[in-house]
Amino acid sequence: MIKLYVLFFLLTVFIMLACVVYIATRHIIKKNKLNISIIQLLIVGIVTTLAYCLAITAREELYAELGYATYFAGIDWILITFMFYARHYTKIWQDTYAAPLITTTIAVIDNISIFHNFKWHHAFMLKQVTIGEDWFYSFAINDYYVVHLVFCYILVALIVLMFAQKTLQTSGFHRNRYLSILVMFTGIILLNVLYLFFDYPVDVSICLYSVASIFVSYYTLMYNPKTFVEFMLSTITERMECALISFDENDSYIYSNQVANRMFCQSGDKKLLEERFRKWREGKDANSISNANWNDIYNINGDEYRFDVHFNKVYDKKGFYCGCYFSFYDVTGDFLAYEEEKYRNSHDSLTGALKRESFYEEVRRILDENPHTEYVMVCTNIKGFKLINDMYGVDEGDKLLIRCSDLIREKISSASAFARLESDRFAILMPKNRYSEELFMTGMNQVSHFMNNSQYRMVILVGVYDIFDRHATVVSMCDGAFLAIDSIKDSFKNSIAYYGDMLRREYMSEQKILGEFEEALQTGQFAMFLQPVVTTDGRMTLCEALVRWIHPSRGIIAPVSFIPLLERTGYIYKLDQYIWEQAAKRLAYWTSLGHDELSISVNVSVKDFYYMDIYDTLVSLVEKYHIDPSRLKIEITESIFMTEKERQIEIITSLKEYGFLIEIDDFGSGYSSLNMLKEVPADILKMDMAFLSVDKNQNRGRKIVNTIITLAKALGMMVIIEGVETEEQLDYLKGTGADYLQGYYFNKPLPVKKFEDIYL
């Protein structure tokens, strides 16, 4: 009889071991506390069962007592590991660490006490029990065993409480998984109670460990009620943001979610979906392949929607066709957002006209797609537009620009394109046969009347470029039209000009200059010339650095031929930087000769402020050549402060604080000169002799010169008078209090070597 029990117990061990192997090989153990807790529970159950087998099969009392001690200790750890498993599985008391720590500590103490039973026999005593013809060692309970039982049943109560609470709190779909394990656990405990308190010779509850291991593994790792899966799938499909429609193998309607019904079948007639199905598949690749997707536009209740359509066929395990389903993702919002973003990136936010780069691309597309159509590039700008903003405010200026763009949009055809290149500059590409002066004159008059009043008369200038080379860059076409505008800016008779042969030659000449500029700079074709600046008693301590282009084939090119062009295109900063270094290098050379008293003035262009860091560049030069910054004087004009005045003044102030001396050039030639004296921290005022030209206003000019010099002296500034050409002018200027004089009377700009031969 005992052998039969042992056989059942070993079968239990085998089943639990099989569960351990299955879980370890089929599920991810690493970092999965639930799986690990199940394996721990099964391993403890295996050890406990084997220990009980040893206890009832041992023929020596020592081995039997060892088996029972291990069995009783194993019961502790079965309950401890089952409690750990219950915490991970039910997620009740999962964040509480005090109870597991206390129970584990008590279990260790209880195990130590039980294994000391060999010495004290305080927990149990062995006795021989006969079943049929077999006998085995059983045990009789002593006083301490009651303490062991109390601890075990406290653990049992905690486990039952966790599963009971979870069973009550969970949904009906999942209640079975917790209730089944609770019933199984309770059954094992009841059998164990029968064994202990009703003097049954063998603990048959161990046989249920195999059932328990299967229950725990299945309900924990694999059980998902079919009704729950169906509920989840139906809920998910109903809540999906896409429209979902499925059909069987005969193309008959099966199912559609709420989104699909709302979009495609508001009447509820499912036959409509079958009709739509045939239209959706018509001509699509979905007729021959399992999966396909496309983008389509559908009209729903009078509104146009864009969908990403996904079509999928479904096959069973043997490869037989079962049916198919469509999923429709509404991408109308994304499409509109994309189109809006695309529009914002390509169109001017104020006028709705194309932006510069988008216009260039559109022009190139039109020219390439219409090779047999002749086109003209028409560019416009408003004369003195900055003055409009100053007089009427930016809001009125914006309204004017909107008016201009609206009129252009009205006048041009769909085969044209127009853009707001910048500020008040518009460009229009249009077929040549659509262009007429009358068209633009009418439009200009309409816009002009928008703001003309007694204080201001608005003039719109138009430049026309006949596109003779379709492969030229669009930038050059616009440049040609604006060159035509530049030719009439000072004219009050004409408002429309054409890019003709003369402008073409001028443009080609400018392009040639720009094309040769970089090489000329690298090969040293630009030379620094120096013009002396003398005191009224004839001493030379200062000179101005000027530039000449010494071309290898064309000789010396006058500055007027390239300086304005370089200013306009922005290349001037490279030339200025080159001349600044030449001046700094020369000052260092003069220092080595002992001429520490000599200084050089260098010019700063408005474009320099935008294309480089002026402060770092000038400071690095004086540090590189070890010269006093006051010897490299910075010469500026009021045009520098036409835009971003505060930023420019901040840079000038920083240079002055470092030690540079600041000169204001061409004082009196603009309308803001007095503001410059107030706001710019300048050291030297430079005034042209134009005030003293020989005409009927000479006396008034002299009074102005005297007044400006007096004002400069009151502000602590030195004064340079430039443009001195006659002895009469010199005689007058000696008595004005001016500090320095400059002009052809003393000398013209000289090559550096000749300058040094004369003055050093």
From TrEMBL:
Residues 373-501 form the GGDEF domain. InterPro entries: Cyclic-di-GMP_PDE-like (IPR050706), EAL_dom (IPR001633), EAL_sf (IPR035919), GGDEF_dom (IPR000160), Nucleotide_cyclase (IPR029787), Rev_trsase/Diguanyl_cyclase (IPR043128). It holds the Pfam family GGDEF. The keyword Transmembrane helix applies. It comes from the Bacteria. Residues 510-760 form the EAL domain. GO terms for molecular function: cyclic-guanylate-specific phosphodiesterase activity. Keywords: Membrane, Transmembrane, Transmembrane helix. CDD domains: EAL (cd01948). SUPFAM superfamilies: EAL domain-like, Nucleotide cyclase. The chain crosses the membrane at residues 6-24, 36-57, 69-86, 144-164, 176-198, 204-223. Gene3D superfamilies: 3.30.70.270, EAL domain. NCBIfam families: GGDEF (TIGR00254). This is EAL domain-containing protein. The lineage of its organism: Bacteria, Bacillati, Bacillota, Clostridia, Lachnospirales.
